[in-house]
Amino acid sequence: xxxxxxxxxxxxxxxxxxxxxxxxxxxxxxxxxxxxxxxxxxxxxxxxxxxxxxxxxxxxxxxxxxxxxxxxxxxxxxxxxxxxxxxxxxxxxxxxxxxxxxxxxxxxxxxxxxxxxxxxxxxxxxxxxxxxxxxxxxxxxxxxxxxxxxxxxxxxxxxxxxxxxxxxxxxxxxxxxxxxxxxxxxxxxxxxxxxxxxxxxxxxxxxxxxxxxxxxxxxxxxxxxxxxxxxxxxxxxxxxxxxxxxxxxxxxxxxxxxxxxxxxxxxxxxxxxxxxxxxxxxxxxxxxxxxxxxxxxxxxxxxxxxxxxxxxxxxxxxxxxxxxxxxxxxxxxxxxxxxxxxxxxxxxxxxxxxxx
Length: 356
Description:
single chain; alpha+beta; Deoxyribonuclease I, Chain A; seven-stranded mixed beta sheet; about 20% helix; globular; Endo/exonu/phosph_ase_sf; hydrolase activity; Endonuclease/exonuclease/phosphatase domain-containing protein
């Protein structure tokens, strides 16, 4: 069952609102990466929350990137078991009409199967079976995906839902962790949707992480105000996470990395957009709207590879108009180590030992 956390509740757990965001107090979000005793602080979830049989653990070669390597327009490589790929996809107006178009649904299902977790925005239907039917289509090819979906959200009559669709072979969700951030003061047009995951390997060494799915309004001044509020959302989700330090905010920010850097969200020390520069995420290839945001000192599991998946390219070679029948956004993705790493990039064991 989903639970609602209001800003008031989160603030009670996390401290005062807007506390010294511009003054450096948040640089304690990540422990000193040079500290000899630094260990990941991810909490080990309760056994009954993580209902799965883990994959056989392998010892990965740790990869740490100080700066993102963005692969614009490239499809992600196949999964190798040592890494996972987390994606975000705004499927514009994803409702009954698109579900009735077999070619569109087939393409969307193919896109989802390329990733381990996909955060979806802009689900627009009152059909309570919508995501169940879509994931059933994803699984027709022999895949084993599951999903969680939010309630219908929004300040206007055009409400929408968020969803996470994930590969159960590689990803486990803690269903007790799923909630929508409450917004009693109506500071956001759509409240973010939060869930905790881990990779499906030995739980003692699995990468655990929290995803925060967002979709902002498209224009200023409301956009800048919402990006400011998302800074507080990021902080309080992290503070209320029972020690989990890998918090990844992702979705349709309706803003470039440069725009985000000028808001309170971009002023959180150590927070980094994984896509930036001359990378475009819309089908028209003239704007950067979608992104994944990590805290670099904490999420050493980021493997240094991220990009935009251009589903209109080869082998389909869709025209712009054809691509936009699917969405006006391309999915964005980033690759992460499947194993928990300490701040020095070594695989860590929650029993206290570090695997060298």
